[in-house]
Write a structure and sequence with these properties.
9 strands; two-stranded parallel ribbon; alpha+beta; globular; Peptide Deformylase; binds zinc ion; 3 helices
Length: 185
């Protein structure tokens, strides 16, 4: 089932999300729905707060980037209760977007190498290192479960430049070809 994606301005995007247990209600269905919602919107990652749930869950399918980085061909993962343990290397720029912030794309600086511990969809515990675009996508989604958006990371000038667009999005004044949920005023 395709779920509406929460738009910029909703308080759920600003909450630090909570860990879940393996009896979380209808978790396999929820994970399926999140993948379906993400694919429908042509995204490569989706975090639970973006569908209105303040829980530490995000899904990633980076295969659209396989042309740039071959190892991303089958990079499809579920991250539950993730904690980034380490970020290292010299920060690099990449042009990011976000399904909750349609029409806004900006260069964001992030470190290239991460170590992350998480549970997969079977609640098997994993600690892995990722780098490059895989790390980038994970860092973006991980920020969502910490209540952080990529626009928070811009310099004051860029923030001022996009302020009007962000206001429009939070007021529902945006053209988007997937279902979204806007805060009612
Ligand atoms: Zn996002």
């Amino acid at each position: 089932m395709i779920l509406p994606i929460v738009a910029f301005g909703d308080a759920v995007l600003r909450k630090k999300a909570e860990n879940i247990t393996n009896d979380y209600k209808a978790l396999p269905q929820l994970i399926n729905d999140m993948f379906e919602t993400m694919y429908n919107a042509n995204g490569v990652g989706l975090a639970a707060p973006q569908i209105g749930l303040a829980i530490r869950l995000f899904v990633i399918d980076a295969s659209p980037f396989a042309e740039d980085e071959k190892e991303l061909e089958n990079f499809k993962r579920v991250f539950i209760n993730a904690q980034i343990l380490d970020e290292a290397g010299e920060a690099w720029k990449f042009n990011e977007g976000c399904l909750s912030i349609p029409g806004v794309r900006e260069d964001v600086l992030r470190k290239p190498d991460i170590t992350i511990t998480y549970l997969d969809e079977n609640f098997d515990s994993k600690t892995e290192k990722f780098s490059g675009l895989a790390a980038r996508i994970i860092q973006h989604e991980y920020d969502h479960i910490e209540g952080i958006l990529f626009t928070d990371k811009l310099n004051p000038l860029r923030k001022r430049m996009i302020k009007g667009k962000l206001n429009d999005i939070s007021n529902g004044k945006v053209n988007v070809d997937y279902r979204m949920r806007f805060i009612r005023k």
